[in-house]
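Can you please make up a protein's amino acid sequence together with its fold in token form to help me picture the idea?
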Amino acid sequence: MIYTRGKDDDAEQVRQTVTLCHTVPHYGGKRWWMICPYRGIRVGKLYIPPGGDRFASRKAWRLGYQSQRDTPRDVPFERLFRLQEKLGCERGWGQYPRKPKGMWWRTYWQHMERFGKLDAECSSEMMNWIGQLSKQSE
């Protein structure tokens, strides 16, 4: 693959070879994979992070997932935000979702029950955090 990295005077032509291979799933057909140019491992995606200069696997770049960086205090907020996105609502504590068009009411009420529990967890985490801050300021 050949691509241009940078802009104007800093532009650089990069030539990188990516080997392909395939497997045959039990249900038929072919599943194509890429071989990471640096680690030599079979992967489904190659990444080029900000500041990176070549495509490589997640392992080669030592990239983690967002969930690996979340603190225990962030977990209920992230779950709440994912549910808000699923319901077509803006992400944010205090944003109340409406029923998306085409969703069954029964399904919506199941999501809203979960929403209520997650909102309560977020409130509890926030109160614990405020309590810790007030202890530190004393």
Remarks:
- The helical segments are 58-61, 66-69, 75-86, 105-137.
- The longest helix spans residues 105-137.
